[in-house]
Design brief:
GO terms for molecular function: aldehyde-lyase activity; transferase activity. By secondary structure, the protein is an alpha/beta fold. The chain is built from 9 helices and 10 strands. The structure holds phosphoenolpyruvate and manganese (II) ion. Manganese (II) ion binds next to loops. The site of manganese (II) ion has 5 residues, from loops.
Amino acid sequence: LVSRKNKPENTVVTVAGKEIGGGQPQLVAGPCAVESAEQVDAAAGAVKARGLHFLRGGAFKPRTSPYDFQGLGEEGLRLLKQAGNRHGLAVISEIVDPRDLEMAAGYLDVIQIGARNMQNFELLKEAGRTKKPILLKRGLAATIDEFIHAAEYIMVHGNDQIILCERGIRTYEKATRNTLDITAVPLLKQETHLPVMVDVTHSTGRKDLLVPAAKAALAIGADGVMAEVHPNPKQALSDASQQMNFTEFEHFVNELEKSGLYK
Ligand code: PEP
Ligand code: MN
């Protein structure tokens, strides 16, 4: 169903009147995790001020260690929605449990399925049953074929509003957090009719590579770019070293505009 052979024209996912995959690339930005009303509201203000339409923020955080901050749960979704409403932004957050999808649909404009859950088939099936657009991230060690099949699980269960997101894969290279597989973008767009985004924060894990990675993503045909921004990254409860502060975020968006690849 997701195959380009089956449907030659691009799928455009429309979220709160804004198109993803409609030709105009979209930026999605916000903190790694929702930490407080003040924190997410400040991030939303910065995102809105720079002309974006989409705010991200994790409420259910799939952390490597069980002792790390796990997110605020439903309260985090509520705070994210409140900030989105206040600033006129559509909101995106990850859901990890199929039992939470119905609840989450009351707060979110787009439901994210994270890299660690790309092959959580019960979650994919349940995501297929919701009416909300799904942002599906590529698994840490998933092939393109496995990624496409994960999207197929969602679509075969009834939801054709899917955005694919390349977020870097595991390789032997340690200079970046993951290895951004940039050719995944044109490959996925050839093989499927779905919009494709690139998460430059989790793929590189390095703030000094966000601008070139985002330019590369847009130049190679991505329909959008995701990046993390936090009012005070040093104090962030997760991914402290890779989140941009507001000055860095300004610079990031300015550079993309100057490149002519984003406006
Ligand atoms: C995220 O976007 O918050 C996240 C945890 O990303 P990933 O699933 O790609 O690691
Ligand atoms: Mn993060």
